[in-house]
Design brief:
The protein has about 260 residues and is an alpha/beta fold. The protein is built from ten helices and nine strands. The termini are far apart.
Length: about 260
């Protein structure tokens, strides 16, 4: 549904195990370049060079116009009809505004910009917000929904960022998306890993209707009882099991954990 900026992609060998994929994005202010190492033998890939690595790169990206929105949405209705009452068709909006910018520059560069070039971060995040709101309006106008989802808030959470950054870069912008969806009778699902105890109440202000996965220690710092105390009657809690257990434990063990969680 989105018209991307003009890009070129090239692939070349890096080693026997990885392939280097180079992306060039042509902007009115100059060309941006990123490289990604893709695993060839089942390994996860990893960014090598992000699209935005400097103030000059950020200014080049900001020169891009907001993409036009268009396309055929019939596949949503076909999927919805096929699924029926067995589940919910999720309208995935992708990364939230701040998460998109963090993906473009990497966590360490984003953290550096939050200290030295905060105005540029806000400009980049606002650019992405304008794009997402245009997409949401396009989908709502065509009856797509009502269940939408986003992710990316986890890039601006403790311990790398404090509550003030979470509010400035997540809540401030995501609220507009949540309001647009809620005013149309929809719901917003937010996926956010990490240590969320210090920022948990802000998901209410952000406008999340569902929050996932709300991890207890050791991967997170939000036990189920705390999640219920903070989010009761305001946000649906999804998760609170250890992802490692989901990979390694048998069905009986997981079932016992779920029953204990319900209690």
């Amino acid at each position: 549904l989105v018209e991307p900026p003009k890009t070129e992609q090239m692939c070349g060998p890096y080693s026997e195990d990885f392939e280097r994929r180079i992306t060039l994005v042509h902007t009115p202010a100059g060309t941006l370049r990123s490289t990604y190492l893709a695993g060839l033998k089942g390994q996860p890939g990893m960014p090598e060079e992000h699209l935005i690595g400097s103030v000059e790169d950020a200014e080049k990206y900001l020169s891009l116009p907001v993409p036009g929105i268009g396309g055929d949405v019939r596949s949503f209705f076909e999927c919805n009809a096929a699924l029926g009452d067995r589940g919910i068709v999720d309208v995935d909006l992708g990364f939230n505004p701040a998460g998109t910018v963090a993906e473009l520059m990497g966590s360490s560069t984003f953290a550096g910009f939050s200290i030295e070039h905060r105005d540029l971060l806000h400009a980049l995040i606002q650019q992405r917000l304008d794009h997402m709101l245009a997409l949401v309006d396009f989908l709502l106008a065509r009856g797509v929904g009502p269940y939408f989802s986003t992710l990316g808030e986890e890039y601006i959470t403790p311990p790398l960022h404090g509550p003030q950054d979470f509010h400035d870069f997540n809540v401030r912008y995501d609220r507009s998306i949540a309001d647009r969806i809620r005013n149309a009778g929809g719901l917003l699902h937010v996926h956010c890993h990490g240590s969320l105890k210090a920022v948990l109440p802000m998901f209410i202000e952000l406008g999340a209707d569902v929050l996932h996965p709300l991890e207890p220690p050791p991967l997170g710092d939000v036990p189920a009882r705390l999640a219920k105390e903070v989010l009761r009657d305001k946000v649906c809690i999804e998760g609170n099991l250890q992802i490692g257990d989901m990979y390694t434990c048998d069905e009986e063990t997981i079932r016992a954990q779920v029953e204990a969680l319900i209690q």
